[in-house]
Design goal:
2 domains; 19 strands; globular; homotrimer; Rieske Iron-sulfur Protein; 7-stranded antiparallel β-sheet; Naphthalene 1,2-dioxygenase Alpha Subunit, Chain A, domain 1; 378 residues; alpha+beta
Chain lengths: 378, 378, 378
């Protein structure tokens, strides 16, 4: 007769030599940071926002990080497009407010060069005596944009990989959650004093949960669930809710129904998917939590966290998202505190790389991935 | 029969290839900024202040920017001299207050090395047992100084070009305005988040006036007047006041008489002369406006703006400069806002050089001039 | 018959060529600062604190400066040890509070790696499936520590010079003061905007005393006493109290008895010893003043000043240290003001090295010493 231990470390063993953390410079050197921006953030698809932020033609929001400033808008055809937020005349910033509505045309406030919502230059005063000047040669700088179930992504590369390649089939996997229908009801912005990779690494293992997140661990055992092997564009896993727990909330209960399309199994799970390099997606049975990570400096990251719910749940008179908001506010604060401490300790003169355990395989995956990306650019 | 369009773009055409704005690094790279300081600000004559700030022997003010700190003073002979604000013993800062009066001698507060107002070392306690030490070998570091019609200039170069060469005849041109007699009645200091060249460029064209400065454009048509061709030490032009307009003020009127020496034509004009690299001179029929531009960092410039009037006007019981002060306060704020936006847009990852029009020829002149200055230093 | 001048400049003459101050870059260039940290602060013994700060097993305080973060603690054996404040797993900062008590073990707040007070790794959850992992291979990073008469020193070098070599016999010289018995009653932290060497240089001559410190000069003539020749690890001298003066206090008097062990001569003297590179020790007849200098940046230094008294004096009902505290608060402010002005003047574009007098021989010693240290590292 055999007894099964419910939560055991059954993942394959790793060897010490293969699994050491990165040298400090990957977390502290501004030059490595700039190389990472080139090799990663300026090359890959970035989560920019949600289609509900762009209800009408002319609706826009800005994406700003580390020298990047992009206008994401809905054009006259109803399509979502993105452009560098800089005039083609003398480089003036076109849109200053973080979000708003453009009244038909984008007009530069300096010399009135004017662009339509498709980015075409349609007005350029006093340029008639510049020989060889043609308006069609000076449209706004185009940035690739794509959408998936309500998520808007942009890509700053001159030759973006196909968006479908970036999604790598996760669109099919997560179709049952019907994310396109969901609405954001809360948005919080955090400023971590930590390198962006430390936020990813913190997200990608739950060994710290019993120590740092007692409430989370009470609702969802830190050894439950399993991870996919690391992928080129994402790292993902899931964890089980404990018996009697309905969702991640302050008391583990929810008065919201589960999403209509998901299976009975998935009503007892939370999915944690990290889309490299800036999007974290938590799918609970009854709400979606999203994080955008914006690298600000080698040791600073801006984190935008949003709580999204089903419109039917929102429409109910007793709708109250605070159980979910409070739960993650608590958990987020615990995580950013740890990430800040990791940044401080790695910046210490006395830091040296240490060994990951075999349950931190996603972190080792991130490290290998960043090294490969940087090497490719050399 | 021919109809003449009053304000037409009659300047010569330019070709697209010749007139592109500079690459971003000239506005964003701290190393280019340091090279510019060497090639430009540490080599050319800089507007430092006005002689009225130095009424008596011992009167002084400081010139401080980007690592430079110079004492400008009136010496015992009544001459204006300038010295590095650092003791020749151990380098201590000598004068701390921005302006004041030195009581006869400059005494270092650390070890009492003492200099007369001509910069000679006249006291050096405890140096008698240093073999080879002679007081005459350790005067204050001399900085060249010159004056023109009440304006004080300094030059930090070891071998300054003659000041007359810098003025290039403008002293004769502007003699009728009698600037030496004028008195400053208002001084305002602005901190632009923009490279110093962007302030110059903003100053050197009025195509933005109908868009950004509706009041200015109502008083003085943006296509009126004309520019001189760009010169090695200055860029200048003039604009006409519209009919019935007496000066640039909130209502276009003035209860001050025009300057006594100027011609009837010049009573209907405003002159805009940019003395490279730090002095902007606006001559209105009844007042003088001056700007000093002090580079602080590649993306920061301190701007000192002063309003100067004729003593006879000031002496009148109903003298009130606020119509002129308010007009330029409004216009200045509009210009610094645009310059800041230009800095932000040029700093954008998506910026690329764009074409100037044929009416932005002074800006293209500035760009060529800075490239030549930098090349000469290579 | 001969008349003796009491305070004359009887030190040997120096030659001008040999005694010029250092070029500006030694005070302004961040790269020189980093090289100095390597050649000096990461190589030499640093004053870290006092044994009275570590009364019990588990008591600790942190040493933090310029990328260094070290835990100094008393271990289970009663010994004082020091460790890099960073976990050997993923580099997390272990202790966050500046001082406190560790309850038996140091546990990382991230994944609960646990160390005993001797630095041994005694707990590493989930590492059992990492092949080749042995806890004994991952102790906390050790930092050398040593004590002398109540003073705690640390050394960050991999191969520290013997501590006795650093003390160079000063432990015998200052044994009569019984420093181990003294207790700190006041601690003040200052933030100078000056390179750390300028604080040392300010400390190492009293020519500025009659100018900057009139009260100090009234109690102790600036030409009194004498210096030792510069040593590889310290610079020291003493000055005499004037007749009738009992100590350095606001009125020159003290109601505290002199330290029991010191000679009659030393009851009329103050010793000023600068232990390179971060410890200044002032021994008065009845109290000890200590300074720690922590380099923060090339132009910033944190200074920790402490006043220490004999327990018998402290125990007296009329004990009041404010006469000594106020005296040095006044003097400190005067000195930091001068050091800040020296930094500002040396940072001036117009600075050039100047000559030391023959009574600034310790400063010239510091300069030579830093050049030798840097050269050794090339």
């Amino acid at each position: 007769m055999t007894t099964t231990v419910r939560y055991a470390n059954n993942r394959p063993a790793v060897s010490l030599e293969e699994t050491m953390t990165l040298p400090a410079r990957y977390y502290t050197d501004p030059e490595v940071f700039q190389r990472e921006l080139q090799a990663v953030h300026l090359d890959m698809w970035l989560h920019a926002g949600r289609t509900e932020q762009l209800p009408d033609a002319g609706s826009y929001f800005l994406v700003r990080f580390a020298g990047v400033n992009v206008i994401v808008l809905r054009d006259q055809n109803g399509d979502i497009s993105a452009f560098h937020n800089t005039c083609r005349h003398r480089g003036t910033l076109l849109c200053k407010e973080h979000q708003g509505t453009i009244p038909g045309k984008i007009r530069c406030p300096y010399h009135a060069w004017t662009y339509d919502l498709e980015g075409n230059l349609v007005g350029a005063p006093h340029m008639e005596k510049v020989e060889g000047f043609r308006m069609q040669d000076h449209p706004l700088g185009k940035v690739a944009a794509a959408t998936w179930d309500g998520h808007v992504f942009i890509n700053l590369s001159a030759q973006p990989v196909p968006f479908a390649e970036h999604l790598a089939g996760l669109d099919r996997k997560f179709a049952p959650w019907g994310m396109a229908d969901l609405k954001c009801v809360e948005r919080r912005v955090y400023h971590a004093k930590a390198n962006w990779k430390l936020i990813f690494q913190n997200y990608s293992e739950c060994l710290h949960c019993p120590i740092a997140h007692p409430l989370l661990n009470k609702l969802s055992h830190y050894m439950s669930g399993d991870n996919e092997p690391p992928q080129p564009t994402y790292l993902g896993g899931r964890m089980d809710l404990r018996e009697g727990v309905q969702t991640l909330s302050m008391n583990g209960l929810s008065n919201r129904p589960p999403f209509p399309g998901i299976s009975a199994e998935d009503r007892q799970r939370v999915y944690y998917y990290a889309f490299l390099p800036n999007f974290l997606l938590n799918l609970h049975p009854d709400y979606m939590l999203t994080f955008q990570l914006w690298p600000v400096a080698v040791d600073q990251t801006e984190i935008v966290c949003e709580w999204h719910f089903h419109p039917d749940a929102i429409a109910k008179p007793d709708f109250d998202p605070s159980d979910a908001v409070d739960f993650w506010e608590l958990t987020n604060q615990q995580d950013w505190e740890l990430s800040d401490r990791a940044q401080e300790g790695i910046s210490n003169h006395g830091y040296q790389p240490g060994p990951y355990s075999n349950r931190e395989e996603l972190l080792f995956g991130i490290d290998r991935w960043i090294l490969e990306r940087l090497a490719r650019r050399q």
